[in-house]
Queue: 4 jobs
Job 1
Amino acid sequence: MSNGEGGGAATERLRLGVNIDHVATLRNARGGAHPDPVRAAQLVAGAGADGLTIHLREDRRHIVDADVEALSAAAILPINLEMAATEEMASIALARRPNAVCLVPERREERTTEGGLDVAGDQARLAAYVAPLRAAGVRISLFIAPDPRQIEASKAVGADIVELHTGPYCHAAPGAAREAALALLQSGARHAAALGLEPHAGHGLAFDSVGPVAAIPEFAELNIGHFLIGEAVFTGLEAAIRRMRAMMDESRGRAGAAS
């Protein structure tokens, strides 16, 4: 979610962050050490991804503390640590110093992250929460809806990055509903970039939905996980990532040629 140092632009290569949480989900289903997230990270890097995303949840349902330690020590790719804004997670992030943390809402009963963080409704607390992380050199990303109010609040609390929630776009029926959701992502990315934030996007992206999002010139990075791990069952992880990488590059290239 946050592997580069500058903002997105139409002439820049769109980065791909790969979430490997569900490699750990598969391991945990049986116990033991296989499949190994570190081995997955090596394959992700070899396939052309730019960063790793891992979500250390309160209930440790997939990634666990030992994975964070092992992946940090391996230093294969820059790590984006997704986490809830709790004191426990702040302590872990300060100890590990990932490239970035992405703050997300988290409910124990949810299957996956269901919506964006309400930054505007929790602005004072989040501003105090991110300050020590930023002081330690950790980049701050906030997972939010493409809502101007949330984008502006993210800037106010000291975020470096906003990751715009692509779930409503991905899950919308093709046609007017999907086009309306895409328009919100386009305007949200422009608004974030105008404020000096680095716009990223993620959640639910797949081969059939990534192209229009990759074509939005302000996006610097897309983060994709569950779909790629699921596709790997059929084609292999490297092949799935290489195809996604190629589709992103093709869409960004077409958008640049048309501008």
Note: The first helix runs from residue 21 to 30.
Job 2
Amino acid sequence: MRRHVTALAVALASIFGARVGAQEARPIQDNSFLVEEAYNQEPGVVQHISTLQRSPSSWSYSFTQEWPVGGIRNQLSYSIPVSGAAGSTGFGDIALNYRRQVVGTGETRLAVAPRFTVLLPTGSVASGRGAGGVGVQVLLPASYSISRALVSHWNLGATITPRAHAQGAGSVATTSVNAGASLIWLARPWMNLMLEGIWSRAESAVAAGLTRTETSWFVSPGVRWAINSPGGLQVVPGIAYMIGLGPSGGEGALFAYLSFEHAFRSH
């Protein structure tokens, strides 16, 4: 944990010591780490997101692409997770997502964009990376601008896997719920300070008709900043540290974020 805190301190020092935002730039907006904002992609703009989470005993990486469909109201995306622990590495369950902008946009004070996800059983059950059956997930993200300098994001969701498989034999239906909230301080148009909190209660299959429930709770301070090119490409790196609370007390993980956002056609 001390090594992670040192790495975070060095990274923060390099951010504030460099003039990464000296150029005139569009502000950062749809680049949250753990709590999903309710802003769909703008027409003609695609986003590529990589995240890396590293704890003393394991790591996980996720790649996501977000595409607008016929305007800002509809968005399709997918997420591919990879993780490793104890010398074993492999893919997790791939997520296929659809999100509908039902209230507001990134330019309004309130925005709401429900998401529906299908989870494909591509991860190994034996290594603990997959549920072994198709799952469905719903998430309700809401974003609210408290002031010109403060924005909050709120999440509430649930995941159901009708036939989750145990590492041994048999299957059982599992249900998981999650919630999250964040506060983003727009210190500069090109640099934001973040405080995110996430909670989850997840069921996993143990045997036929038997599940195990695990609860986790993390708070995560972080920072993100933007590098804008004249051609319209926006690169947003970020770094945070996840601190375990309650049932997750004593746990911690370094979290790194990198986003590339650019136009894929004129609009």
Note: The two ends are 47 Å apart (CA to CA).
Job 3
Amino acid sequence: MKRAALVVFIVVAQACSAPLSASGVVYQKQVACQTPVHVVYVDLNNSDVKVTVAISKAGRGSSEPAASIVSRTQPKAAITGTFFDTRSLLPTGDIVIAGVRAHSGCVGPALCISADNRAEIIPHKLRDRSRMSDYETVLAGGPSLVYNGQIALNPGAEGFKDPSLFRSTQRTAVGITAAHKIILVSVNRSVSMHRLAKIMLKLGSVQAMMLDGGSSTSLYANGRFLSKTSRKLTNLLLVYEKPEDYMSAIGQLAPTLVTEQQVIARADRPRHEAEDYRYEPENGSWSDILARSSKPAVMPFDLRAPGTRPPSTAWLSFIK
């Protein structure tokens, strides 16, 4: 009897700790590991929900105020995306928007979400073994925080070298729970990377990775910014509660790259004909797409050159 009562108590406690709402996108302010945090719960079991990325209006190599990106894309929620080089303004991680590669990066794990809302965070070392064409949305960030339900911190192995990355500062992160929900988290007080990993674990993440932070920390939910940066950003991770809102925003997610017609055409194409994002197509189609961007498709290093190393994270927006 006592055991049965204990099980009931645990179930009730877990239910009370989770946001109760018919909505697919729910915001809560919570305390985790003795730290106040802003959390957006995104229910991927709700087929109406869409998670995507938006880049700055002028395309790769440009930036835009977070409030401006939100204003033109009209998401239900939004959070800071991946790091970017503060000189070239090019993101350091891969970005795929509505099945179209918007940018090729070089470091970190990747949040990958399919058209039917299957989500996973693929570690940096495993990304070359994954068919990235199976995913509609890709955002590579990092470092990893949680993997297989355990804290997993090894920034150096993922291409993050600068020791300044470990200092306490404001942080943002994205996680995936066992209940197939994505959680977007911002911490407005200075915390260490390890504390952030503990927070993500406490909030129920079985997989989690860090996003850009410091002076780039930004979170939008409930119609307002709960974490707001004065710095211009190059990309945001967005959430839509209704498919019609997502489709209305398609033309604004990456205005120089993605159109509604492209998205519809890709949705109608057999899966085996989809591009494999691990490789540059022989017909140069990605080069043609990137050429339409306002800036040349130039990285400060050659990603395919033998022995190439990622750039120092001293350039990253997180440090400044």
Note: Residues 2-17 form the longest helix (16 residues).
Job 4
Amino acid sequence: MRRAFNQTKNCQLASDVLIADHFFARLKGLMFTKNLPAGRGLVIKPCTQIHMFWMNYALDVVFVDSNGVVVGLVERIAPGKISPMFRKATSCIELPEGTISDTRTTLGDRIEVN
């Protein structure tokens, strides 16, 4: 089991993280799921932008560069929406809505997934 940890704030973003790092896993992502329970997340890599088509709930999304530094944040992105593109991002972490504010994650924080 992998976790996402904000080293800058010394707090956990998710204790159970799945990795989507090949075409079909990235394409599917969390589409058609009913919810994303607290403590869970999905890392999509490579990724500079996400869409929320065929989603049933909002998400928080943290975009990070190759060093794990946060280069973009999208809070409570709703079903049917498209996120901004973060050109410096190499991956994103999809999290339950409210995670960004609950953990006080900000641009420049360093996130580790292990």
Note: Residues 23-28 form the longest helix (6 residues).
